[in-house]
Batch of 2 targets.
Target 1
Amino acid sequence: MKPPAHPLPSLRALAVWRRNFLVWKKLAIPSLLGNLADPMIYLFGLGYGLGGLLPQVGGVSYIAFLAAGTVCASTMNAASFEALYSAFSRMHVQRTWEAIMNAPVTLEDIMAGELLWAAAKATLAGTAILVVIAVLGLIASPLAIWALPVIFLTGLAFAAMGLIVTALAPSYDFFMYYFTLFISPMVLLSGVFFPADQLPPLVQAVAAWLPLTHAVALVRPLLFGEIPGGIAGHLAALAAVAAVAFWIAMTLIRRRLLK
Amino acid sequence: MSPLVVAALRKSYDGREVVAGLNFELQRGECYGLLGPNGAGKTTTLRCCLGLTVPDSGEITLAGEPVPARAREARMKIGVVPQFDNLDPDFTAAENLVVYGRYFGMKDAEIRPKIAGLLDFAGLAGKEDANIRTLSGGMKRRLTLARALVNDPELLLLDEPTTGLDPQARHLIWERLKRLQAQGKTILLTTHFMDEAERLCQRLAIIDDGKMVAEGAPRELIRNHIEAQVVEVYGEDAPAWAAAEAQAYSRRVEVSGETAFCYVGDAAPLLAHLAAWPALRTLHRPANLEDVFLKLTGRELRD
C-alpha cells in the first residue's frame, strides 16, 4: 500500500499551539525572567565592561552595538530551546504527541503547531530584550518596530532547524552537539559581539551563509534608524531556511513516528 | 454498518511480518477482544486501524471511513485509550479534558459543561483541579478513559486498558466499560488477561505471530478447542508421575515446571487413580480461556 503524500497542516495546528500556550501561561513570569536574565548579564557585563575599553564599534557605542546582536541571539536561543528540549519532552518523554495523534490531529498539524509556538516564544524573548534596551535608550529610531517581523522570521528559521535535531535525537544529551558545534560558533561568526568584517575573508564567506548573520544584518540597522541594505536577500534567506528546514524535519519525524 | 472492518491486513518491520493477513469485523454494540501474547501484533494492528502507520497491504474501514486515506475523519468518531498513560502532566484533570476536546475542534463552551459528568463517570467527581501528578495509576487510567469519551465516540479502542493496575482498579474499569457498552458503544480492546477477555468480550480473536488462530465467543472457544475438564497435579513428583501414568487417564497432558495439566472429558477415573498418590496435590476445575490460549499459542515465554 502506498503511503499518502505529505498532507498539509490544518487549522488543528492552533489547538496544539494553544496547548503549549496554556502550559506556558502557568509559568509565564519565571519563563520571561529566564529569557531576559542571561542575555542581560552578557549585555551589561560585556557592554559596560568591555565597552569601556572601546571607543566606538560600527559607529555607535559598544553596548548599543551589542544590544542589537543580543536581540537576535536571544531569539535564536529561545526558539532553539523550545524546539529541542521542550518539543522533545512532548514527543518522546511525555508522549503528548502520541495522545494528540489519537485525536483527529495529524503529525503535520502537531509539527506546524510546535513550529509556530517556538517562533512565538522566540518572538516574545526577542521583544522583551527590545523593550529593555529601548528603556535604556539604546534604540535610536521608531524604525525599530520593523525588527519585530524579522524577530518572528528568525524564530521560525531556528525553530525549524531545531525540529530537525529533535527528529534525530535519541535523548536530551544529543542536543549538546547542536549547541556546541552549531549554535555557539554561529553566535561568534554572525556579528553579534563584533562586526563580522573583523574575521578573515574565508571565515566571513562561511559566516555569510549563517541564518543568524541575516537576522543581525536586518535588526541592527533598524535599531539605529537605518534602512538595512539588501533587505529582500536577507528576508529570503531566513524564509528559505525556515521552509527547507521544516520540510526536512517533517520528513524525518514522519519516518520516526509513523513507521 | 460495521464500526471497524479489517481485511487481509499485513505489516512488516525489517523483513519480519508483524501482522500477517488479519481479518476481523466488529458488530455494532459488541465488545470485541484481541487476545495475544506480547509481540503478537495487537498494538501494530491498532496503529494501522488509527492510520498512524501505513500497512503493507489490506483494507481498513473505521467508522465508515477508509483508513489511512481518511484517518482524520475516522478519528473524529472514535475514542482511544492508549497502552501507556500520556495525560498532560502540566494540566489539571479538567484542563486535560478541555485541551483534548479542542483537538476535535470542540469549543471550550461545548466541553466545559461535559467535564463534571465525565469525571463523575470516571469515579473522579470533584477532582477537576487535581494535578495529574497526584493521581494514582488507576485514577490516571480512568481519566484517560474519560478523555477518550470527550467527543462522545461511537467506538472505543483500548490497548491493554488494565495492564499495571491493582485488582480494585481493574474491576472499576471493567464495570465502566460494561456501562459504556450498555449505552450502545462498541468496544475493541487488546489484552493478555484471560479473565478480562472472558468477562468483557462477547467475541474475541486469539492472535499469534500476526495471524488469527481462533475467533469466537469465549465459551464457544473453550467448547471447540479444548477438553471440558482440567486436573492440575502439583508436587515434586508430578513430572515423573505425568511421564509414567498421566497419559492413561487423560486425553492430553502438558507439564510446566512441577505442574502437570491433565485435560480430560471425564475427570473421575483420573481422580480415583490420584487418590493413591497422596504426595501429589490436585486441583480439579473446568477448562477456561487460559487453557485455550496456552494450547493455541504455546507455553514458551514471549519477550
Target 2
Amino acid sequence: MALLETKKVVKRFGGLTAVDRMDFTLEEGRIVSIIGPNGAGKTTFFNTLTGIYKPEEGEIVFDGHPLIGLRPDQITSLHIARTFQNIRLFGNMTVIENIIVGMYPRQRQSAFDALLRTRAFKDEEKSAQDKAIKLMKYVGLGNVGNELARNLPYGAQRRIEIARALASDPKLLLLDEPTAGMNPHETDEAIALFRRIRDELGITILLIEHDMRVVMNISERISVMDYGVKIAEGKPEEIRSNPQVIEAYLGRGAIAEMTAS
Amino acid sequence: MAKPTQTNISSLLKPIWGWITKGITPYIILVVYLAISSFLVFNSPRSLPAFLMFVSSVVLLYYLPTKIWYKAVLGVLIIFVIIPIVGVRNIFYLEIIFQICVFAALALGLNILTGFTGLLSFGYIAFYAVGAYLWGFFGGQQMFLLHAIPGSAGPPGKFFLPADTFYLFLFLGFGLAFLVGILLGLPVLRVRGDYLTVVTLGFGEVIRLLATNMDKPLNLTNGPQGISPIQRPTLPEPLLQALRVVLNPIVGHEVTLNEFYNLFFYLLALAIAVVIIIVTVRLDDSKLGRAWIAIREDELAAASMGIPLVTTKLIAFAVAASFAGIMGVIFSASRMFVSPESFIFMQSIGVLTMVILGGLGSIPGVILGAAIVVIINLGILTDLSIYLGELRQSDKVIPIINFAWKNLSSQLDPAKYQRLVFGIILILMMIYRPNGILPAKRRARAIEEHFVELNNNNNEKEAENGAA
C-alpha cells in the first residue's frame, strides 16, 4: 500500500489555482522528487500535505489516516516531518534545544512532571538529550550543541533542520529545496546523508529540488509540476527526455532548437 | 566606535572580577559588605544610599561564586533577621521590599506571556485586578451591601467570611485568574502580532471599567470608590508578644500591629515570589517552556514540529494570569482596600517596563527589572521630591547663578515624572540594550564528553594525513 496518496487536490489563492487536481502516490521507502519551474506550486503542495494550507478539494491519505482538516501539529504527530525552503530554525535557542523541540510529539511529560521534576521527567529529558546528540552526529554536526542556532553558518543550519525533523521519528520526511545555497561539496554530502536516512533509518523521502544534478542523482522517481498541474512522472531518465518537461523548463521552441542543432 | 570602548571596559573589569572571585575572597567580601550595609541602614534608617547599598548586597550574593550553603545561610539571615529589623525601624523599606516581591511575581508572569511566548500584552494588570477584587469582595463587607447605594458603610466589624479564609482565597485567586486567563485568551488568540497587543489593551481596560461600573444594579465592586475595609488574616497574639520581646529593644520602639502586618505580608509575598520563580525556572527548561519559546521564535516552524499553537498559548495566558491573580489577593489584603485606580493602563506599562528593562525572557533579568523600577518609583523619585521640598522650604540659594530654592516651581517635583522616567528607560533600552540588562541565556548542557571521541578521531585523521 502506498504510504502517501493524494487524489485531485486543489488549492486556490483567489483566482489563482496554485495546485490543480494533483494526484500523487508515494510508495514506502522511496526517495522521490517533485520538480518544476518557479511558481509551479511545489511548495504549496507541500504546505497542503503538512496542514499549513487547507486544500479546497481532494483527499490526502497518509499511512491510512486522512489528513484533510488536520492541523500541522496533528499531522506531525502522525510521523510526517519537514524542513523549509528558507531555513526556519528557532534562532535564539541552542542547537540541542532546537532538536529536542523536534521531539515534542513523542515526549510524554506533563507540566506537573516538569514542576515536580519527577523521575519520569528526568529520564525523558536525559534520553532526549542523548538522542539529540546522536542526531547531531548523524547529520554531521560537531560540538555545537550549546551554540545558539542563529550563530551557526548556513550549511550547519541546514543540518540542524534535518536533525530536528528526524527527531520526531518520521516515517515520511519532506525536504523543501534542501541543497539550495550549498556549494558542490556540501551538496554531495547532503545527497549522501539523504541516502543514509533512507537506507539506514528506513524513512521515505519526498523532496522539492531545483538542482537537476541532485534530482537526477538521488531520485528514484520524479514528478514534474507546472502551473499547479502535474505534467509528467517517471524515472529520472524518462523525465530527462520528456518533451513536455523540457518545454516547461526551457520554454516553447526549445525542443525544436535542440533537434535542429 | 562603541565596540572598542565596551571591550576596554570589560578587559579592565576582567582582572578585578578574577581577583574578587578567587578562593575565599568572595566569602569575605560578602560578609563584610553585608555587615557594613546592614549597619548603615540600621544606623541611618532614612538614608536611601544606605538602603541601595543593602539591596545591592543581595545582588552580590546572587552573583559572587560561593558554596551554595554559604549563600543559603546569608540568604536566611537577610530574609528573617536583617530585613525585619531594618524594615521595622523604617517601615518604608519593608514596603519597598514587599512591592519588589509583588512586582517581581507580576513581571515573571508577564515574562511568560511576552518574554517566552512572544505575545506582547498591554493588559496584563487585569489579572491582578481579578485576584484583588476576588478577595476584596469576599474578604470585605460587600456581600452585605449588594443592594445598598455605592459608598454606603457596611455593618461595623462584621465580615462575610472569617479572616483566615484568606489562605484559601490565595488558591482561589490563583484558580480564578487561571480560568480568566483562558477565557480572555480564547478570543484574544484569534488575532496575531500587533493586533493581539491591541486586543489585550482593550481587555485590560474592560476589566478596569467593569470594576468601576459593577456597582449597579448589584453593588459588586462599590464603583470608583473601591472596596474598603478588607480583612487581613489574623496573627496569633502570643507569637506577636514573643516577637515584641525580641524586637522592641533592637528597633528601639514598641512594634505595632500594623508593623507586624507589614512583616507578615513581606514574608508571604516573598514566599510566593520564590515559589513562582521555581515554577518559572522549571517550566522554562521543560517541554512546555521550549514550546513557548519555539512559538516566539517561529510560529509556523513550531506548529510544524508538532506544537499545538492554540493550546500552548492558552496555557501561557493561564499561567501568567494565575501569578498575577495570587498576588492580587495578597495586594488587596495588605492594603485593606481595592479600587479601579490600581489597575490603570499605566500599571500594565509599568510591569512591561520591568520585563523589558531586565531582559525579555530572562528570569533573573525581570526580577532585577522589578526591583529597579520599584526602587526608582518609591525610593529615588520620592526621596528627591522630599529633598527638593525641604530645599524649597529653606532660604538656601544656589551660589553663582543666584537662584533661590524657594522659587523652584512645584511642577518640577520628580515624583510627578514617573512616566517620563519610564518612557526614557524604555527608549534608551530599546536603542542601546534591546535584550535588557541581563539578556536571556539558554542553559548550556554538559555534552562536551560526547564529542571528545569525534574530535580525537578528527585529530587522528589529520595526523594520518600529515604523516602521509
